[in-house]
Amino acid sequence: MHPAQEPPAAPATAPPAPPSAPPASPPFMPDVPAPPRRPAAIGVELRVSKRILWIGAAVYPLHNIARVYSFLLRPKRKEAVLRFLRYTAGTLITGFIAMLPGLPSLAAGGGDSGAAGYVTFVWIAALAVEIYLVVDLFSVLLAADHHVLAVETSGASTALVTSQDPRYLDQVVGQISYAIDHPDTEFKVTVESLHFSPKNYYFGDNVNMYGGSGNVGIGA
After folding, report:
1. What contacts 162, CB < 8 A, 6 or more positions away?
2. Of the candidates 149, 200, 142, which has an alpha carbon nearest to the alpha carbon of residue 172?
3. What's the confidence (pLDDT) of residue 22?
């Protein structure tokens, strides 16, 4: 009688591999909700996908980005005041020189209508120039400050992004910086467009941007 045979042992199976967890967000990225968009602002999409930074229709390869930073964009108020004083002085001096040919006739009391008309024309022209200078001055003095994020490339182009909340800009800076070192990172945020005259603001290096006719800049 043969002894009872033991049933063959079941083959050992490896435990199922745990599902891969998504990469954790960098610790320096605060969870700041997007600020509400201003009623008059035009929305622009800023996103990173497949190693490409998109700001609206503009494309910036991540490997071509040299610097990402935020700062406060301030109008050139001091320069505007100095420019107004300089141009005003130049207008008055030029107007006085232009009136010199007609002053002798008026001083003689001859009632030369031609000389009087010439002097009046010079004063009207000087007044028109002065009105233009006053408008230009107050357009800078009353211009608003903007919290701005700048994306500089290794070439000549720079993109500007603005937001009502500077913490939101800091978050976007962290996201872009993290995406530069982590190729699989993708994200998308909604931003606002920004149009301004570059001659009226301090923004550092020469900037080439898209958006608007006769203006530069796009915003967040």
Report:
1. 73, 146, 147, 148, 149, 169, 191, 192, 194, 217, 219, 220
2. 149
3. 47
